[in-house]
């Protein structure tokens, strides 16, 4: 059994999210997703459109996701990996190199983004329609 863990906000859930979760799930048998809480996003200076509980419900409904946990701080990843017995930490390539320090407790994998879509671009596109 191989357990994979990832983290993200997953706001305005879109095709890029689905493809990332599918590719991560293909790396193992279990995919655990740490979903950033609203409070954590505020501390990061990031405004999400959808509240945490909605984003969790969407993630839980995704067939690739086995379990959703709250992401409440940057430094919780090491503890989560050990507690969940994760074999692989995977995340989008836009984070390349940022989590290499976790390689002493699990394999770290950076996956390419889905071209042509991002939450930032989607948010901008929607806002420009109403300006």
UniProtKB/TrEMBL annotation:
Q: Which domain of life is it from?
A: Bacteria
Task: Enumerate the InterPro entries for this protein.
Answer: Archaeal_FAD_synthase, Cyt_trans-like, Rossmann-like_a/b/a_fold
Q: Which organism is it from?
A: Lutimaribacter pacificus
Q: Which UniProt keywords apply?
A: Nucleotidyltransferase, Transferase
Q: Does the keyword Transferase apply?
A: yes
Coiled-coil regions listed in the entry: none
A GO MF annotation of the entry reads: nucleotidyltransferase activity
What is this protein's name?
Glycerol-3-phosphate cytidylyltransferase
Note one Pfam family from the annotation.
CTP_transf_like
Q: Give every Cytidyltransferase-like domain span.
A: 5-123
